Amino acid sequence: MLHPQILGRTCADCRCWIYDQRHKKILRRGQPVARPAGVSTPCASCPKENSADGTYFDRHVADFAWLIRRRHEAIATGGACFSATERTDPLLHRNLGVVEAVLHKLEIEQLLRHLHQLHAPSTPIFRRRR
């Protein structure tokens, strides 16, 4: 959710191509730059954190997207979008609960980050005259 720019990029892509700090493929003369043999991938700075978690995420990104879409549909329709089977599916309910908890945590983290920025020491508005 916080890093949509990496959704279309797999760990295999990162092993093949070089990306900049904004997670965009580096181009030379309009062509992507291949990662030279032996040059390590930037897993430490990647939001996926490591190749094992990244591979799991890459395999399940469509499932995550489906769950988030179903959550939005459920909110928009007050749950009327669910079939009779979905209304009684405990696995779907659990997964939607996990999505809700993660999104709630992200909202709180963004709010705290915003509040910290508002209250962080910065250049004073009024300077004392000497």
Provide a descriptive summary of the structure in words.
The protein is mostly helical and 130 residues long. 52% of the residues lie in helices and 3% in strands. The chain is built from four helices and two strands. The chain has helices at residues 11-16, 51-77, 84-87, 90-119, and strands at residues 27-28, 31-32. It has a two-stranded antiparallel sheet. The termini are far apart. The relative contact order is 0.09.
Task: Write a concise keyword list for the protein shown above.
mainly alpha; two-stranded antiparallel ribbon; 130 residues; single chain; 52% helix; 4 helices; extended; 3% strand
How would you summarize the topology of this molecule?
Blueprint lengths: L10 H6 L10 E2 L2 E2 L18 H27 L6 H4 L2 H30 L11
Antiparallel strand pairs: 1-2
Helix pairs in contact: 2-4
Summarize the structure.
With 130 residues, the chain is mainly alpha-helical. It is 52% helix and 3% strand.
Describe the biggest sheet?
2 strands, antiparallel
Oligomer: single chain
Instruction: Name the helix and strand elements from N-terminus to C-terminus, one letter apiece.
Output: HEEHHH
Beta-strand portion reads under 5%
Distance between the termini: 49 Å
Arithmetic mean of pLDDT: 82
> Which spans of ≥5 residues are poorly predicted at pLDDT below 50?
none
Helix content: 40-55%
- The order of strands across the largest sheet is 1-2
